[in-house]
Amino acid sequence: MLDLILRHCTLPDGRRDIDIGIADGRIVAVAPALPAQAGEDIDAAGQLVSPPFVDAHFHMDSVLSHGLPRVNLSGTLLEGIALWGELKPELTQQALVERALAYCDWAVGRGLLAIRSHVDVCDPRLLAVEALLHVRERVRPYLELQLVAFPQDGVLRSPGALDNLRRALEMGVDVVGGIPHFERTMADGATSVRLLCELAAERGLRVDMHCDETDDPMSRHVETLAAETVRLGLQGRVAGSHLTSMHSMDNYYVSKLLPLMREAGMAAIANPLINITLQGRHDSYPKRRGMTRVPELLAAGIPVAFGHDCVLDPWYGLGSGDMLEVAHMGLHVAQMTGQDAMLACFRAITDTPASILGLSDYGLEPGCRADLVLLQAADPVEALRLRATRLLVLRAGKVIARSAPALASLDLPGRPSSVDFRRRAAF
Ligand code: FE2
User: Fold this and answer.
1) How far is CA 159 from CA 147, 165, 427, in A?
2) What is the per-residue pLDDT for 424?
3) CA 302 to centroid of ligand 1, rounded, Å
4) What's the mean pLDDT when you consider all of the chain?
5) 310 C-alpha to ligand 1 centroid (Å)
6) Given 137, 144, 170, 213, the catalytic residue
7) DSSP run (H or E) holding 390
8) Would you identify the CATH topology of the domain 2-51+363-402?
9) Which of 102, 311, 319, 367 is least surrounded, with the fewest CB atoms within 10 Å of its CB?
């Protein structure tokens, strides 16, 4: 006897009219017209059922702090970093925990059930590390929070940062971070990459660095990151976040770089909302978009995920935990409007980041944990187009969030009394 059957689902791979059988919190069957009886039946009515959204790049320590102690007047990356520096001494653990938990509530409502968050380790009190380790445990029953030890002010440039980073790892932070382009020199940046990759190799950890988040085409730490990945045998465990300098690099150089990244088994994480707003700020016209070369990376066999990066913080005064909004922006900025390209954008907020984070139990195969999202959309492209309502969010087979369908009521002569925005089969 199954606990639950979701009937008449459309799956992200295009399979239609599929039933998903769930028992003991796991998916046990995925097939058309399951004959089994279940404690509960839910009719998906042909709408899309997806594994949950995954955010590969976020900053949970600054989330929802917008306006504290003041807003970012220029809207630039560097003023954001300076502003975060002003806020850091005023942070309290209670406020950090409350803001993070509030954001996790938003995330669950949006069907976002796994987040990789960087946590700044340049504060010697490691207040944010302690707070987010606490939050990681609090939300574990419903949301997977993976933490990256992130030396925001530079692991070499900021006194004591390397020791703090090591302490954060001792305390249980999961992943080694870095920010080579923010070190004082290119040489220091390269040294930081080597040192941090060695630290990860010694401890058997993954690496995810803010890498080359600049418009400077000569910021090429991604090359060092790929080379260190190969040298230390870290293939499959290293991600380069942002990689915005690749937008501005010479094409010939990129033609050498992409195979090197592929050889290193690296993943790339673009953050479209943030890249499009923070990059190109020194340009007049034409202004660069700044996002890394997503279609070219994918064509070279390098997995690319889209991250949210920021929500209501010193760098970005918008956002709501909606990964469909993130992918929608990524799709536009990268001009990925072909059918396959749009599907790749949907994977960039589901399967691809799940694999970058190394999530076990993720997916729609029998045996996976029954974490599912029922969307008010016919397929992944429509989900992107509408930033579709997440009608139900399930964790381990239990409904943990519901939203009412998005409908507008109309008052028009001779027209229907309500309208939804899904595509209709025919007119
Ligand atoms: Fe970031």
Assistant:
1) 22, 11, 66
2) 67
3) 20
4) 96
5) 7
6) 213
7) strand 390-395
8) Urease, subunit C; domain 1 (2.30.40)
9) 367
